[in-house]
Amino acid sequence: MLLNINYLYKERKLNKLFAIIASLFFVPLTLSADWTEVRIGTEGAYPPWNGTNAAGELEGAEIDMANELCDRMGVNCTFVVQDWDGIIPALLNGKYDVIIAGMSITDERKEKVDFSVGYMTDGACLVVSGDSQMASFSPSKESINLFNTDAATKQVTGQVVALLKGKTVGVQGGTIHQNFVEQYAPSAELKTYSTQDDLNLDMGAGRLDVGLADCGAFDDYMAKADSNLTSIQPTLSGGPFGDGVGGAFRKDDDDLREMFNAAIKSALADGTIGRISKEWFGRDISM
User: Fold this and answer.
1) Per-residue pLDDT tens for 88-113?
2) What is the per-residue pLDDT across 247-278, written as a single tens digit (0 to 9) for each?
3) CA–CA separation, 248 vs 119, rounded Å?
4) What is the distance between the alpha carbons of residues 265 and 272, in angstroms, rounded to a whole number?
5) Strand bridging mode 51-52 / 58-59
6) Which residues contact residue 185 at a Cβ distance below 8 angstroms, ignoring those fewer than 6 apart?
7) What is the spatial distance between Cα 79 and Cα 66, in angstroms, rounded to a whole number?
């Protein structure tokens, strides 16, 4: 009788162990998402990347691109508008599944989210009044990449820093442009704005000495507004400006990120993203 009891006890322990092992194998299947529906977070206030027209409809290069990517992936996508300053927290809280909003790929942001491959890249431009003495600023290079450490890049960087010293510089808050001013030109008087539109309005009204944003964002405003603004060289990239623009994902959504990567690579290879960017920026800024 004692032998039978011991046998039953051992058998129950083995059965329990097998059940635990089996459950471990099945956990990933139950946690896997069904990506037939994808919610895309965007700002809708940063043309020509993403904006809102007079009818209240989203439009822009990223809106057209996102719709194209969704068609290629065979998924139904909906857009969710979110203010820029809360765009990453809202992703992490599950308000949407991916950010497509002119977000540059930077090491700082990689601490919170994972990025797709880059799909477009646009340099940053300094904009001043055409009547300003700064309008005649003429550096020794037309563009610089701050990842470079050569003497010429350092020289032009120093010229830009000297130009901004004591000037009131406007940027959209929480952006790579704010990071640049804080890291490279702390002697400037930094003023941040909730949206690019607010920054544009103050630049147009003469309340700022300098504005800093993606070149395309200022080009779009200056083409539509009756202003005396002009962009000056150099065009800035690299360093705090990152490695181009990509989609941002929660770190546990690798499957969705890979879906977007495949679609982005396909749309880059056949020239679709280049065509879309040219329609909205007037030039091909695809990566």
Assistant:
1) 999 999 999 999 999 999 999 999 99
2) 999 999 999 999 999 999 999 999 999 999 99
3) 12
4) 10
5) antiparallel
6) 160, 161, 164, 165, 169
7) 9
- Within 13 Å of residue 188, how many CA atoms lie on the same side as its CB? 27
Identity at 154, one-letter amino acid code: K
Cα(202)–Cα(179) distance, integer angstroms: 20
Tokens of 42: 């965007």
Query: First-to-last CA distance in the chain?
Result: 76
Would you list the domain boundaries of the chain?
A: 37-121+244-281, 124-241
Identical fold for domains 37-121+244-281 and 124-241, yes or no, is yes
Domain 124-241: homologous superfamily in CATH: Periplasmic binding protein-like II (3.40.190.10)
What are 213's strand-pairing partners? 125
How far is residue 123 from each of residues 72, 96, 199, 232, 239, measured CA to CA in Å?
A: 28, 28, 18, 12, 12
37-121+244-281 under CATH 3.30.70.240, yes or no = no
